């Protein structure tokens, strides 16, 4: 099991335990932290998270589709340099202890 330290949209601190595999969006969605409406194809932005800066390099590079979706969100929510779509991050053992915050609803 890997641990994700997450802050919900209402500021509640949660520790999520999940098996690595799949994408980060899945355990966060299952825990009720994200809506993940599009199911993981980077087309809705409802899995937008702010990754702690110290963890950002471990989450990989933004895909082109992810960058476009984040750019489209800028008009309605704050997009930070640490913004990522959780559906575009492979959830691996390397992310055990990951710290993040769910971004506000778009």
Instruction: Find the count of extended strands (DSSP E, 2+ residues).
Output: 5
- Cα-atom radius of gyration: 12 Å
Largest sheet: 5 strands, mixed
Global outline: globular
Roughly how many Å apart are the termini? 31 Å
List the secondary-structure elements in sequence, H or E.
EEHEHEE
DSSP helical segment count: 2
Kindly report the average pLDDT value: 95
Low-confidence stretches: none
Strand order of the largest sheet: 2-1-5-3-4
Strand percentage lies at 15-25%
**Which percent range fits the helix content?**
10-25%
Tell me the structural class: alpha+beta
Task: Explain what the structure shows.
This protein is 15% helix and 23% strand. The protein has 106 residues and is of the alpha+beta class. The protein has a 5-stranded mixed sheet. The protein starts with a strand and ends with a strand.
Short description:
The chain is of the alpha+beta class and 106 residues long.
Q: Could you name the key traits of this structure?
A:
single chain, 23% strand, 2 helices, 106 residues, 5 strands, alpha+beta, 5-stranded mixed β-sheet
């Amino acid at each position: 099991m890997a641990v994700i330290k997450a802050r919900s949209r209402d500021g509640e601190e949660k520790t999520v335990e999940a098996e690595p595999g799949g994408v980060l969006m899945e355990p966060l969605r299952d825990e009720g932290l994200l809506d993940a409406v599009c199911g993981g194809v980077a087309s809705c932005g409802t899995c937008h998270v702010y990754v702690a800066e110290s963890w950002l390099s471990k989450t990989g590079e933004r895909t082109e589709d992810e960058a476009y979706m984040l750019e489209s969100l800028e008009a309605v929510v704050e997009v930070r340099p640490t913004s990522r779509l959780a559906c575009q991050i492979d959830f691996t053992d390397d992310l055990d202890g990951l710290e993040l915050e769910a971004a506000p609803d778009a």
